[in-house]
Amino acid sequence: MPVIAECLVDAERVLPALQEAREKLDGAGGELVLNFSAVRRLDVSALRAMEHLAVAADDKAVKVGLRGVNVEIYKVLKLVKLAPRFSFLT
Amino acid sequence: MTSPASVSKQIPIPRESGNGHTSDTTLSNERMAYLEGLVSQARTAAAVFTQFTQEDVDRIVKPMVLAGLEQAPHLARLAIEETRLGVLEDKALKNMVATEFVYDYIKDKRTVGVIREFPERGLVEMAEPIGVIFSLTPITNPTSTVLFKCVMAIKTRNAVIFSPHPGAWRCCYEAVKIMYDAAVKHGAPEGVFTCLESHTLLDNAYLMRHKDVGLIDATGGPSAVKAAYSSGKPALGVGPGNTPVYLEKTADLDMAVVDVITSKTFDNGTICASEQTLVIDDEIYEVVLRKFADLGAHICNEKEAELLGRTVIDPATGFMQPMAVGQKATDIARMVGLSVKPKTKLLIAPIHGVGPDHPLSVEKLFPVLAVYRAKSVAEALKVCVDVNHAGGLGHTAVIFSRNEEIIRQFGELMNAGRIIVNSPGSIGALGGVYNDMVPTFSFGCGTGGGNSTMDNVSIQHYLNIKRVARRTPAHMWLRIPKEIYFNMNAVENLRQFPSRSTVIVTNAPLEQFGHVDIVRRYLPPETRVHVSVIPDAEPEVKVVTEGIEALNFYKADQIVALGGGSVIDAAKLMKLKYESPDADFDELGAPFLDIRKRVVEFPATKINHLRLIAISTTSGTGSEVTPFAVLTDKQRGRKVTLADYSLTPDVAIVDPQFVMSMPKGLTADTGIDCLTHALEAYVSLYASPYTDGNAIQAAQLAFHYLPLAYENPRDEEARSMMHNAACIAAIAFANVSVGVNHALAHAFGARFHVAHGRANALMLPHVIRYNASVPTKFMPSPNQRTYVADKKYATLADLLGLGGQTREEKVNNLVAAVERLLDQLKFPRSIAELGISKEDFERAMPDLVKLAFDDPSGRTNPRMPLMSEMADLLWSAYQGRGVAKSARAAQPQNA
Fold first, then answer.
1. Does residue B272 have an active-site annotation?
2. Which of A81, B612, B638, B812 has an alpha carbon within 20 to 30 A of A6's alpha carbon?
3. What homologous superfamily does CATH list for B52-238?
């Protein structure tokens, strides 16, 4: 599956980064990779943005891969049942 | 505080009335979406909260508490305006307790990550938040309960959806909002608290059953609590009480009267822990009532009391009338039509019993107190029990007394989570003010009250507490006699044991051989010596009983047991019963899995003290150093095996002069028993470096010297070394037990009357092969890091110089060495050779397997012997050498 783009998510700009990622979903198909290795924690608004991103990606048939997600954030995504909506890359 | 923006616009919010009850019987889709939005919001907040550290949490809690304290009077005023219940000043006080006192209790408590450590037990407790809590709050203590729950939720990283009582919605909403704003301002996740903006029972039912709600915390009336528990969700449901108070004649009466008035009038009696029926000792009844009257209580006469009961208690339901709840005493008097002084604080009504015929004996959340005059302590306690059981189970009970024994008795009799002594019930039960109980606004009432907890609900109930349990190897030991003397003429050491009266326990042949004379010779000259000759067989109850009679008759202070295993076992049992006459052999023979955790304990109290010196005259059982003894009860047709280190002889003498005349057959049988002890102890689950050395040494000695002692019975060195080997092997198995070889041999030997050593010999090669293969089932054992039996056998083969390159070759060589030894000792090599028919053996098989399975010896075997595997082993032994692998195929189909 071709990778549309790989974006590094800045810990201080998680929300804008996720919004920008959503804009990159215009191309049909493929995979978008977000590098979360600098992100230590998600807040409620970031979590909502993740959910919106997942919905938009489904609409555009784009897979979203998350790289370098720490296990605390992974647990948060599990708790809100978002984990299955993404693939997790090492 | 947030509401789900997308849905709140569609939901009408009846804020004016604060009561959103509808008559719908099913939820509309719109309503469901609203409720789902609330849960989703709370779930997201709770998920985000999991990332917070203890420091993050504590940074939020403190400003929340300060906000609650600051707004305490404001919230009290709102509550009074809305509910018309209680006393403004008291409600303000409750709000302050719910914040300040609760904070004082929780501020230094850990609620994130590691919360407690028990290094000595290898245990660590860690906190896991619950997630989303659905919380019902009451009308009687509305804002204080909300403040309390908000503080607890943040401290424990949980999100809460509040469903306040409809009659207290606005004040609760305001309380939630104040807490929410303070929390979010200091970093709490948005949406951490939400408050249903109107609700029906359907809403509550929906949320109570919601899959994403982790816990229901229902503080309120019985119906709310029942609904919570009926939902199938984990719930903290804490409900009504009926507090009995015993005012006992030794109490400080002035203090008691003030405390009861303080408590029962606090917030007009709305705290469910407040006093309901005061039981007063006859001797102080009049004086106590006078004191109440002096301090502003109105003492009702019989007629007034009857009228009061009829008015404030619903005769149809037997419960209090809602109109009276939280009202002032003067207002209640007005309702009833009583004429009381304008400043009357409390109405006191005498009752003469408890139950439906005495309406005022139930819970009354208003300043009406029932009083009962008790003629005796017994009557007073009985009435308190009655009140406790009339709707107050698990809740609160109060006693005023200086008599510690009566306080203790009251504590035992009351089924109450809070038994308050010499203090006000309501404020006492809240904790932290009059005592050191946990401050709370939710009283757990235990199973008596249909609740999951009896505690004062607090942060620990808002957490899942995880236990990280580290592997802790079981403590092991090496327990042996205090002194062991060995080598030729070791018996001379008897000289150093002074005794006034010694009984030598032995059997007839040994006396005839002159062995008893040798022993006599070396006992100190001042010792009075008596000889008790017992049969050369496993000790029977009768033999032991007669032995004890002899010990008592001679006032013995020492036994010298001279003989084989049976004689030494008998002496152990005589000593036990002589020192502790109440010892019950049947009870002490009860089965156990782990000697350290056994149910039955051997007696610690001794009326006599006796030294037991064991001199072994065979080289096999090692009974002179073991903690075991077997007793045969012929009358009841059973054997009892006793095991306890208190049975271990005090002194063991391993002198080969007593075994020089052992016949060949006995030499072989006991020698193989010794080797089996060594090999089984070596691979036992409890084996340790302390016992391995003994086991290896004993095996080496047995392989080398047993054939020599067998072939040349007068070989002093061989006899001496085999005698040592038996003792050394016994030191090992006395501490780590044996294995399945012994379990099978015990079962087979008993059924077919085959000598123990011979039975062991028939099983031994097959058991080594079995233990050296990968187990079908591993035996749980914290001391074994991996399966080592095969490796240990290979190591032993190396030490014996048996050769072999691979582990398998070495194990095979060990088995071959055992088989060679058995051949040298001219043992039958199959059960079939003993003349036991296949049919007889097959018939016996179920019993053999059952007996072997029940035998405790098998429990320390390195692999868990399954019953089918024990049958395989028995069939292998039946068919003899070289059949282990094919035995299964050869055995009958129904075996």
1. yes
2. A81
3. Aldehyde Dehydrogenase; Chain A, domain 1 (3.40.605.10)
Retrieve residue B681's tokens.
């102890």
Residues from chain B contacting residue A15 (CB–CB below 8 Å): none
Q: What is the count of structural domains for chain A?
A: 1
From chain A, pick out residues whose CB is under 8 angstroms from the CB of B44.
44, 47-48, 80
For B664-890, CATH gives: 1.20.1090.10
pLDDT digits (tens, 9 = 90+) for B726-766: 999 999 999 999 999 999 999 999 999 999 999 999 999 99
Least confident of B55-64, B480-489, B647-656, B853-862: B853-862
Chain A residues 12-71 with CB within 8 Å of chain B: 41-45, 47-48
Distance from CA of A23 to the nearest CA of B (A): 23
Is B600 at the interface with chain A, CB within 8 A? no
Closest C-alpha among B491, B487, B562 to residue B532: B562
Q: Looking at CA atoms only, how far is residue B409 from chain A in angstroms? A: 50
State the average pLDDT over residues B693-712: 98
Q: How many CA atoms lie less than 13 Å away from B39 in the CB half-sphere?
A: 21
Measure the CA angle with vertex B331, ends B175 and B18; round to 5°: 30
Using the Cβ of B126 and the Cβ atoms of chain A, whether some distance falls under 8 Å is answered with no
pLDDT given for residue A28 in this prediction: 59
**Is B131 within 8 Å of chain A by CB?**
yes
Nearest Cα to Cα of residue A80 among B45, B828, B498, B421: B45
In a domain, A41, yes or no: yes
Bridge partners, residue B349, by sequence: B370
- What ipTM does this complex have? 0.89
Write out pLDDT tens, residues B765-812: 999 999 999 999 998 888 888 999 999 999 999 999 999 999 999 999
Q: Treating both helix axes as pointing N-terminal to C-terminal, what angle do B88-96 and B54-70 enclose, rounded to 10 degrees?
A: 160
B189 part of contact set with chain A, CB < 8 Å:
yes
How far apart (Å, rounded) are the C-alpha atoms in residues B150 and B441? 12
Q: Which one is the CATH code of B483-658: 2.40.260.10, 1.25.40.390, 3.10.129.10, 3.40.50.1970?
A: 3.40.50.1970
